[in-house]
Amino acid sequence: MVNIEVNKRKVEAKEGETLLTALRREGIHVPTLCHVDGLTPTGACRLCAVEVEGAPALVPSCSFPVSEGMKIQTHSARALEARRTIVQLLLSNHPDDCLYCIRNGGCDLQQLAQELGVRQRLFSGKRSVGKLDVSSPSIVRDPDKCILCGKCVRVCEEVQGVAAIDFARRGSQATVATAFDTGLNLSSCINCGQCIIACPTGALAEQSHIDRVMRAIRDPEKTVVVQHAPAVSVTIAEEFGLKRGIDANGSMVTALRRLGFDRVFDTSFTADLTIMEEASELVQRIQTGGVLPMLTSCSPGWIKFVEQFYPDFVPNLSTCKSPQQMLGALAKSYWAEQEGVDPANVFSVSIMPCVAKKFEMGRPEHGHDGQADIDAVLTTRELARMIKTAGLSLEDLPAGKADSPLGERTTAGKIFGATGGVMEAAVRTAHYLITGEDLPDLKIQPLRGTQGIKEAAVEIAGIRVGVAVASGLGNARQLIEQIRNGRQDLHFIEIMTCPGGCVAGGGQPLNTDQDMVKARLQALYSIDRDETVRTSHANTEVARLYEVFLGEPLSHKSHELLHTHYTKREVLI
Amino acid sequence: MAQVTSEKYEAILDRHQEAGRDHLIPLLQELQDMEGYVSREAVLAIGQHLKLPASKIYGVATFYNQFRFQPQGKYHFMVCRGTACHVKGSDKVLDMLVKQLGIGPGETTRDRLFSLQVVACMGACGLSPVVNLNGEFYAKATPAKVASIIHECREKESVHAAG
Ligand code: SF4
Ligand code: SF4
Ligand code: SF4
Ligand code: FES
User: Fold this and answer.
1) Among all residues of chain B, which has the CA nearest to that of A189?
2) How far is B57 from chain A (nearest CA, A)?
3) A393 contacts A239 by C-beta, under 8 angstroms
4) Any long-range contacts for A445-452 (C-beta under 8 Å, 24+ apart)?
5) Rounded to the nearest 5°, which phi and psi values hold at A495?
């Protein structure tokens, strides 16, 4: 225990922690621009500087350790003036663009200028004129709005292990760039969007599909179907200022209908279906000596990561398409057939916690008979924007229900949104497929929680099945390296690109922090605790789908619609 | 990682066995000397050798002005931005080149005819502002003078094309 004094108040801090950590616990807000939770501080922006008695200069609280007897002023005239100057300098070559900016109202820089009372342009630096990069199917980069805080660079390298971007050039020419300044689409970027979440300004945003969706809705020729991913209903309420960790499934479904979607389906339905296919694939691989460990394939950032960094592991990837693609494929076959609509007139939209899904939908491996499985992907943020534009608010809407026959879900499908959820659901069903009985306890505790890597060994009919879960591709890299180096006790590995799983995806509400991730995970596990149908094989609409359309898991028809293959990808890495 | 056929770099890479990050700049220099510019292949090869991502290598390389990322053109202009030349108006000369050629420093025209480079003092301060074309110095350069040099180059090329 370390005793310090903050703004004339006694505060207890912990040995070895930084000032910022101690201050935050006390609820004292010190602004930061370059700090990323969990990563080594760089001390680049100096915004977090506070006054320490006896120290000649202000010290950056994000990297300065607490020490006994330290006396701090967080908002002294000197500290405030220093912060104001920093913000004024940042604004000196920043476009006065707030009114037209994607971040208007949610921008850290704007917020700071407001908080510090910056009321006029004091310095007029040369406006940087960078090139807008719209080459990526997932991400738009506007270098003019970049304040070079470096968060995106660090998240990309340290959290995701990708390093698609870095600082290039210097002085007034400095930018964040890909190798050789190519568009992001040609770089090693895996489209995860974690950089968007980290970015304090409007320099990074998703490629919006709102316009094309609205156009389809207004087109009388089109039947517009929408699906929503498991992790969306537990985060979207945040966009409306409601409490974190609330499941807004019912009101969101109603909002979707009022927006004009003709059918509302649930991606958790195809999550259950994925489990049927994937668990069967696993059992088959184990029984026939197939390639192991099998790796999950539902996270498109991860797929691209394997294709470029670990092409030797492509055969380990499950051949299952992601739940998004499966639902799209079924909407344009099974459902269209049943409904008597021409698949060519079905416009298939998905609401995803993810920007990589925008990349996935365009992959040439997907689609059938000349039809794309998915025609547009909206992130949680985009959907919230659409709901607001339509003058609706989630709080006021009555609860609605998803449509049959692609709308029923079990809680096993729902927990896909959490890191470890796919694995837990798969183990439940694999056990059933092999033994004909459910696990005595469906909850598999070691697979829950926010740790980057989790492992468990499950006994199924006398076979010891080793499973592991990783989220955040830096963690995935560690696990894959272990296997490359000869580790053999694992049969099945779940990888989610984003740390924490889809609840923390790149399409989720901005300013996602650890507490939010925990609350969102909790929301998913509460659903699993409180409902009674908790295994994918108990989904009656899935059972019916097999009965009347697919036959059985891994059937010819399943392969045609629900499975695919990936190959090595050459990019500059 | 993607395996490049980097045989042509082997001799150079071999001289940097067990090398760490501090070898990055020397490696970039040597590969640039060999090929006239830093190619994508070279960056990949260095990346594999030093276990560094391409974005990082590019970031470091662009930090210094000495590296170019496109092959030189048939006519390679170097403009001095040393103090003496600067005082005598080398920036006007550079502006003119940029405008006339439609490329920035470090770039090469699409037809591979012209390339442009800005260099620190070339040691010819007495002649400032000085421009160097394919090794030949042009003293007391003015925008007009350089414009006529470009014109001459273009003339030559059209004669070639006609002949
Ligand atoms: S990035 Fe922020 S400060 Fe800049 S224009 Fe957008 S909203 Fe305004
Ligand atoms: S989307 Fe992901 S991989 Fe691409 S630049 Fe951003 S953090 Fe890196
Ligand atoms: S793009 Fe955003 S996160 Fe990256 S350096 Fe610029 S402002 Fe920071
Ligand atoms: S947050 Fe501390 S220096 Fe940027």
Assistant:
1) B55
2) 8
3) no
4) A447/A420, A447/A421, A447/A423, A448/A418, A448/A420, A448/A424, A448/A521, A448/A525, A449/A420, A449/A521, A450/A419, A450/A499, A450/A500, A450/A514, A450/A517, A450/A518, A450/A521, A452/A499
5) -120, 130
| A194: Cα within 13 Å, side-chain hemisphere | 37
* Residue ranges per structural domain of chain B: 7-63, 75-162
Q: Which CATH architecture has domain A2-89?
A: Roll (3.10)
> Residue B74: is it exposed, middle or buried by C-beta count within 10 angstroms (0-12/13-18/19+)?
middle
Task: Spell out which residues of chain A touch residue B2, defining contact as CB-CB under 8 Å.
Answer: 308, 311, 568, 570-571, 573
- CATH number, span B75-162: 3.40.30.10
Fold of A211-562: Rossmann fold (3.40.50)
- The yes-or-no verdict on residue B50 having pLDDT over 60 is yes
Residue B3 has pLDDT above 80, yes or no: no
In a mutagenesis test of the B interface, which of A156, A166, A310 is the best target, namely the one with the most B β-carbons within 10 Å? A166
Contacts of A484 in chain B (CB under 8 A): none
Asked whether residue A387 carries a pLDDT value surpassing 70, the answer given is yes
Sign of CA dihedral A62, A64, A66, A69: negative
Collect all residues of chain A within an 8 Å Cβ-Cβ radius of residue B40: 179-180, 572
Residue whose pair of structure tokens reads 């190519």 in the numeric block: A182
Query: Which of A387, A381, A308 has the alpha carbon at shortest distance from A570?
Result: A308
pLDDT one-digit tens code per residue, B99-114 = 999 998 888 999 999 9
Interface A:B, Cβ pairs < 8 A: 60
CATH number of the structural domain B7-63: 1.10.10
d(CA A47, CA A20): 12
| Stated pTM of the model | 0.92
How far is Cα A174 from Cα A147, in angstroms, rounded to an integer? 10
Domain ranges for chain A? 2-89, 211-562
Rounded to the nearest angstrom, the distance between the alpha carbon of A332 and the centre of ligand 4 is 50
Tokens 């969990």 belong to A38
The position carrying tokens 């498109």 is: A300
- Minimal CA–CA distance to A348: which of A322, A319, A371, A381? A371
* Residue A173: per-residue pLDDT: 86
Q: Which helix (H) or strand (E) holds A87?
A: helix A77-92
Q: Tokens representing A292? A: 């192991």
Q: In the prediction, which pLDDT does B159 show? A: 79
Confidence of residue B1 (pLDDT cuts 50, 70, 90): very low
Q: What confidence tens digit (pLDDT) does each residue in A456-479 have?
A: 999 998 889 999 999 999 999 999
Burial (CB count <10 Å: 0-12, 13-18, 19+), residue A324: buried
pLDDT in tens, A250-298: 999 999 999 999 999 999 999 999 999 999 999 999 999 999 999 999 9
- Check CB contact under 8 Å for A573 and B2: yes
Q: Is B2's pLDDT higher than 50?
A: no
Give dist(CA A123, CA A279) in Å, integer.
Answer: 62
Closest atom of ligand 2 to A198 CA is 7
B1 in contact with A at a CB cutoff of 8 Å? yes
| A187/B contact by beta carbon, under 8 A | yes
Q: How far A572 CA sits from the closest chain B CA (Å)?
A: 6
Q: Please say if A8 is a catalytic residue.
A: no
Evaluate the CA torsion angle A302, A308, A313, A314 in order and state its sign. Answer: positive
